[in-house]
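WARN retry 2 of 3 for item q-0093 after timeout on previous attempt; input resubmitted unchanged.
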Amino acid sequence: MKSKIKIYIVLAFSSFFTLNNCSDELELTNPNSPTPESFWKTAEHAEGGLTAVYAPLPTIPMFGRILVGLHLIHRSDIANPFPQSNVNDAGALQVRPENPRLIEIYSEWYKMVARANQVINRVPDIEMDEARKQEILGEAHFLRGFAYFYIVNLWGTSPLSLEESQGLEDLFLPNSTVEQTYAAIINDFSIAQSNLPSDGSLPKGEIGRATWGAATAFLGRSYLYTGDFSSAAAEFKKVIDSGIYSLNENYNDNFTEEISNTPESIFEIQYDGNETGGWGGSGGNVWRAQAWEADIAPRNYSSQQSMSVNDWVLDLFLSEQTVDGEEDPRAKATLLWNYPGAKIYQDDFAETMLGDDLDRVWVRKYLNFRRENSLTPGAWQGATNNWKIFRYADLLLMYAEAENEINGGSQDAHDALNEVRDRVNMPNAVGLNQTQLRQAIRDERVKELAIEGNRFFDLNRWGIAADRFEQHPEFRSNSQGVFIRGQHEYLPIPAQDVNSNPNLNQNPGY
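OK item q-0093 returned
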């Protein structure tokens, strides 16, 4: 049985600077604290340093809660967040550079970058098994590319650090361009692809580590996001032809706590609960679980103000039926609304939801209905249904998109789209031209991937984020937020970073 990568102790590696005093004899080195020079000596050190790069991923600031619920799901045109100061601000289009929830995710991403830089710089000089050394370097390059993929999509222009910091001058980096950042991302994923085993085996045999499939899939996604459709299609085709991945027979198996790491999962965040942990980032014994349920669950069942779902999403689901004349099964797996027999956790929807809430649409996907609400039993650390970063269904739809942009309306594009639709017994798309197929793929991405954190990135890369919100102000009716073109496509860079770095400029509008 394959073991899961464990992150129990995080070594928060950072640059160590010499502190000079008027007395040359004053020694300020802490003998109990390792420095980069004293630490990076053995294979065990290489493994520990790599584990530290993974460490932020399942924490509360990152995929444990803040990143997922507030900065991925809430910001799209699917979500309609209710106002809650310092929590729902990003989704309500009211986030400021001083926002603590913003600072948390920015800091954790750059911790990953700094730690990956140390691994990439230091591990080549360690005497150890050469094959495992190359895997470690491949994993580190994947994780750095992964971090920057999210950084560039969340902030656009932001510092690009590709070397281990050696002094204060290395900390005052300017904004990089989006093009520079994507070039670095593509290089990192390419190196990871070359260094990791292409036969589907897992580094160290541990589930949750970066793999060849994950590196290749993200390489394709990065090309797609930059408009290099031919390169994107080629990378996606490698994953498809590998035979490593396949769609689960049951769509909802992707989102339950009981089932994880299925053949459909290309990369997913591993939660282990850690009931003895606490709130915080990757610097100690912290919770490593799914705590963002409270940010997407119906507000009567959450301690947070949460969100409703905009009506157009349900309308899209109900706009067509299966080949048997039934409702798309993904509708009730994704959404809650007032249909006959609807349950909300352990209660009857029609009896519990009152007033306007009875007529609203809410989230169902990922909610743990064995509980009474979003926070019981346990608390923030209670749920362990893994967050699916990249599913094979997503890759098929991106392959269809890339292929359609290259060879408009091609059979390969239709086939990839229909493979996703076949799983849920939806009729095949046939004979669509490039424009029709482009819209069909975009609609399918909503039905297949809603509430999985991809939608706002899609709107941005298609160049239609501002159009959607300007044409539909009702998408922010709960908060009365107004989308400002040229500003809200990206988050602000935290004020503390801009104020302390004379070379760093704030994003427009903040």
